[in-house]
User: Which sequence fits this backbone?
């Protein structure tokens, strides 16, 4: 059985590579541009949070929790810059002959912040949190394919699947897949193997962590302490950075981004990644059951105008499917959906939906500028005879009360670790009622998705994932006009290496990867 972690070999399930020989047994600063130095208190302004936040690994819906969890805990696998899988609590891994089982070698000599040594049993218990009928995990749909998780040798865990999955190791880098002590459900104590130890935790307000003096990773977790500050208002967050109250922030407003970029002492970090902004239609709602109506909605938005006026040019044109060029299997062959109000009007007439009126529910929480984008969309769609009624909703409770529960609503997806994770979570049958926001259920898509994850031949796998994207493009309920660049801003005192493109602020791992310059 071959054990390896390079992206190509992990995808193919072919060839062997010694992780210890190529990467070493310790993680390293990701593509460091200067020499990191230790010390200081890093203060980070967070816009996405809830007073109901919890450190339960099953439930990590907000950015506040992502950052805090990555400060306190580790996964088996880390997603590095460029989508490269890096050993974390697993030193190496590999599949059986048909990729229906994966073996993970667990790192020895690691202790939790309470002094307990990490064991293979901790790994099994942690992964099983996301399985079974009682789990509340956001990764439940992805873990449905897991038949068994077992200790198969000292410091070795085998995950058995219900079929081949070439990209399964990447799933274990997701934020839900954090490793915690077995049988310990007091999650809010923050016990983990991470670079920091929890000191203060006030959901919806702030958190404080202190450097773990026994952290097992070399060249990581440089700060003495990290403070997360919950600042929802974009103007307040920007002012806090300008006045030195915080050292970094994400979700920079595209309107003020050029001003920040020109300001002394501030660095703007623009990262092209997997993020798309847009609107989702519930395809089971009477308004959107007809495919022609859904296509009309896609042709009723002027993407170039949205990119220029709403996104300020910080992004690129998207095409109503979720896989950007940052994914290995992005489908570049799809004809571009373009603004065509006359064709949209003809499609509505064909569907018997002339004079369509659509309530569109938005808040600023999904993405900065969502309300303005919805209003611009309404103006554009009016030329196709579509009346869009923009319904402004409060940010508080948007994800639980509005998203996925209205006929049409604003949405944001930062992307996921690989194609299978993104497509399974948001578009598969097994995710309906969870992250499948549009309740889309396409039989051909579901079968093609299973075939894609099971395919060992890279060329054929690419073809299958291209077909999945084509089906979403032509049939699903997504109106995605733009790929939005991640916009972060920092004090110029902050140093960092190459920035990851899966989430903002270096994959939500800036607390571990960044440092203060000398």
Assistant:
């Amino acid at each position: 059985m071959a054990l390896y972690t390079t992206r190509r070999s992990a995808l193919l399930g072919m060839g062997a590579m010694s992780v210890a020989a190529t990467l070493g047994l310790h993680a390293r600063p990701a593509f460091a541009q200067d020499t990191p130095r230790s010390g200081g208190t890093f203060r980070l302004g967070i816009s996405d949070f809830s007073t109901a936040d919890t450190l339960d690994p099953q439930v990590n819906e907000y950015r506040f929790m992502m950052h805090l969890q990555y400060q306190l805990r580790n996964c088996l696998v880390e997603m590095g810059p460029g989508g490269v899988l890096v050993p974390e609590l697993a030193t190496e891994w590999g599949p059986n002959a048909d990729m229906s089982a994966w073996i993970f070698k667990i790192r020895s000599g690691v202790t939790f912040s309470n002094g307990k040594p990490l064991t293979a049993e901790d790994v099994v218990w942690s992964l099983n949190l996301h399985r079974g009928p009682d789990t509340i995990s956001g990764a439940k749909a992805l873990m449905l394919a897991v038949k068994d998780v077992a200790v198969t040798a000292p410091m070795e865990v085998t995950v058995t699947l219900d079929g081949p999955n070439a990209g399964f190791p990447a799933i274990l880098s997701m934020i839900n897949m954090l490793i915690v002590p077995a049988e310990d459900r007091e999650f809010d104590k923050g016990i983990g193997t991470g670079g920091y130890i929890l000191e203060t935790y006030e959901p919806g307000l702030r958190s404080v962590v202190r450097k773990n003096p026994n952290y097992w990773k070399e060249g990581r977790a440089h700060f003495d302490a990290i403070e997360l500050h919950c600042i929802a208002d974009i103007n307040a967050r920007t002012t806090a950075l300008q006045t030195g109250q915080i050292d970094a922030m994400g979700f920079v407003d595209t309107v003020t981004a050029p001003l920040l970029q020109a300001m002394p002492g501030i660095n703007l970090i623009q990262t092209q990644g997997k993020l798309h902004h847009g609107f989702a239609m519930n395809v089971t709602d009477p308004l959107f059951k007809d495919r022609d109506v859904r296509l009309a909605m896609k042709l009723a938005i002027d993407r170039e105008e949205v990119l220029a006026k709403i996104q300020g040019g910080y992004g690129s044109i998207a095409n109503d499917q979720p896989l950007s060029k940052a994914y290995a299997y992005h489908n570049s062959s799809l004809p571009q959906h373009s603004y065509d109000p006359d064709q949209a009007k003809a499609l509505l007439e064909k569907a018997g939906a002339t004079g369509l009126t659509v309530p569109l529910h938005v808040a600023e929480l999904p993405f900065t500028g969502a309300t303005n984008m919805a209003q611009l969309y309404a103006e554009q769609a009016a030329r196709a005879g579509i009346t869009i009624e923009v319904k402004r909703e409060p940010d508080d409770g948007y994800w639980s009360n509005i998203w996925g529960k209205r006929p049409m609503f604003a949405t944001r997806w930062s992307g996921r670790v690989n194609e299978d994770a993104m497509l399974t979570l948001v578009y598969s049958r097994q995710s309906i009622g969870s992250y499948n926001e549009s309740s889309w259920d396409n039989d051909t898509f579901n079968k093609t998705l299973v075939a894609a994850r099971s395919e060992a031949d890279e060329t054929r796998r690419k073809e299958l994932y291209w077909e999945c994207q084509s089906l979403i493009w032509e049939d699903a309920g997504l109106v995605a006009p733009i790929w939005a660049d991640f916009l972060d801003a920092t004090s110029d005192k902050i140093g960092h290496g190459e920035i990851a493109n899966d989430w903002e602020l270096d994959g939500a791992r800036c607390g571990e990867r960044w440092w203060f310059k000398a």
Remarks:
- Confidence is low (pLDDT under 50) at residues 1-32.
- The first strand starts at residue 41 and ends at 46.
- Residues 458-475 form the longest helix (18 residues).
